Amino acid sequence: MQATGQATGDAVALPLDEPPRGTTARVVTIVAAAALGGFLFGFDTAVINGAVDALRQGFGLGAGWTGFAVSCALLGSALGAWYAGRLADRYGRVRTMQVAAALLAASALGAGLAHGVATLVLWRVVGGLGVGVASVVAPTYIAEVSPARLRGRLGSMQQLAIVLGIFVALLSDAWLAGAAGGAEHPLWLGLPAWRWMFLAMLLPALVYGALVLGVPESPRHLVAKRRPGDALRVLRQVLGLADEDALQRKLSEIEQSLRREHAPRWRDLLGTRGGLLPVVWVGIALSVFQQFVGINVIFYYSSTLWHSVGFSEADAFAITVATSVINVAVTLVAIALVDRVGRKPLLVVGSAGMAATLALMAWCFAQASGSGAALVLPGAWGPLALVAANAYVIFFGLSWGPVVWVLLGEMFPNRIRAMALAVAAAAQWLANFAITSSFPAMAGLSLPFAYGVYAAFALASLLFVLRFVRETRGLELEQMRG
Predict the structure, then answer these.
(1) In sequence order, what are the beta bridge partners of 481?
(2) Of 344, 429, 437, 396, nearest to 135 (Cα)?
(3) Whose CA is closest to 35, among 108, 127, 139?
(4) Four-residue CA torsion sign, 258, 211, 400, 169
(5) Quick one: 22-215+275-470 is in which CATH superfamily?
(6) 3-state DSSP percent of the chain in helix, strand and coil, to 5
(7) 73: exposed, middle or buried (C-beta count within 10 Å: 0-12, 13-18, 19+)?
(8) How many other C-beta atoms can be found within 10 angstroms of the C-beta atom of residue 280?
(9) How many CB atoms lie within 10 A of CB 136?
(10) Given a cut of 60, is residue 18 above it in pLDDT?
(11) Most confident of 89-98, 299-308, 451-460
(12) pLDDT in tens, 391-431
């Protein structure tokens, strides 16, 4: 990737990143509505945490099927992400967000009322499709309506929404399981608590669908569809500029950056030698490393993990909720830092911190005695493992959690943004599936080995960032190069 700080070629850098205060509030409101897709993204992927043991017992699942039941939604997410770019370019960012909301609402009902593991898997895949679509279109839309001065912070709202969704999902899981006396025990209408965990997602899905009806279409998409009058109206709304000449210059800048003779095609992602453009490879690698450091093992399996090493079910749920609170808090810190410190420095610190804390977790679990359900961390090793796990979440939440989504939303040239982000997001979901589905088997083999592998990937991510990732802080989207 190359992101230049000076005007080059047909991309002219214009000083249009200082919107009035009222306009800032308007943009934040628009972005918050779009970021609610991230909330559903986090909720849908984490809600399975509280249901893992109940599903395993209720359907008699072994380690392999348990891993697949937990991770099957991620296959749908990869598929949804793959096609989301084409949908967003053809039908618009807003209409595509509405499709994501409908898929997530249907999944909530279907998974909550499923009466067999195959039906549950089917509806989880449908929800995954919605999550995959939202994971592409929301950061694309947010980057395209955000002034450069605010883009890092506004882009980070996607990750904030994700971690809030994770927190609410884990909190509702804990509350529902506590109210019923266990996730497998009946609660309301004779349905067990784990079913209500899935049904709870219906409300935010409907709210998301309603809110995105009121947000404006991306000005860059409107320009691509030859609707300059509508694009000017949206630019006036998000930039708050009264100077019509400045608005016209900005419109011209977008038109020049989008100039082409054909609609977006997959071949646009290819370089002169037939391979993918370097910037696309960087996006794919960022996505894969974000998952290969094992973060979703914490949010999908933590209740089961802490229960397996000697904590009670109630304490395991409480630990999981506390971890998600930490995740939310550090994401807020990252939002405050991303436009001040920059993207690359945060990634470097995060990778180094994750490598150290994951290695410490591997060391702690190496001290465990027993096996399977009788596994125990003796003495101070249990508390130390908890500290290491939460320190790991802090380093991830300060860096790779929000910053990768910011970069994916802004690092690609306008002409290929939605499609390149779709490829990167699909790679991310496939990587997530690989890590999530393999963890039960890896943990059964050796927890120290599992966390040692994640530590090695964290170290590799540090080397990758130092060598290949370039800073994009403060640059207009029209300045991004492939």
Answers:
(1) 2
(2) 429
(3) 139
(4) negative
(5) MFS general substrate transporter like domains (1.20.1250.20)
(6) 80, 0, 20
(7) buried
(8) 25
(9) 35
(10) no
(11) 451-460
(12) 999 999 899 988 898 888 788 887 777 778 888 888 888 89
Maximum average pLDDT range among 13-17, 99-103, 231-235: 99-103
Q: Which has the closest alpha carbon to 331: 428, 405, 422, 385?
A: 405
Three-state SS for 463? helix
Asked if pLDDT for residue 1 goes beyond 50, the answer is no
Overall pTM surpassing 0.85 (yes/no):
no
Could you count the other beta carbons within 10 Å of the beta carbon of residue 217? 20
Give domain limits for the chain.
22-215+275-470
E-strand spans in 168-304?
Answer: none
Closest residue by Cα to residue 69 from 118, 27, 109: 118
Most confidently modeled range among 80-89, 98-107, 211-220:
98-107
Q: Rounded to the nearest 5°, which phi and psi values hold at 469? A: -90, 130
DSSP codes, 14-51: -------HHHHHHHHHHHHHHHHHHHHHHHHHHGGGGG
Three-point CA angle 73, 353, 156, nearest 5°: 55
Structure tokens at 429: 């979901």
Question: In angstroms, rounded to a whole number, what is the distance separating the alpha carbons of residues 313 and 57?
Answer: 15
| DSSP conformational letter for 270 | B
Rounded Cα distance between 349 and 197, Å, is: 36
Angle in degrees, 0-180, between the axes of helices 295-308 and 417-445, rounded to the nearest 10:
20
Contact partners, residue 440, CB within 8 Å, separation at least 6: 63, 64, 66, 67, 301
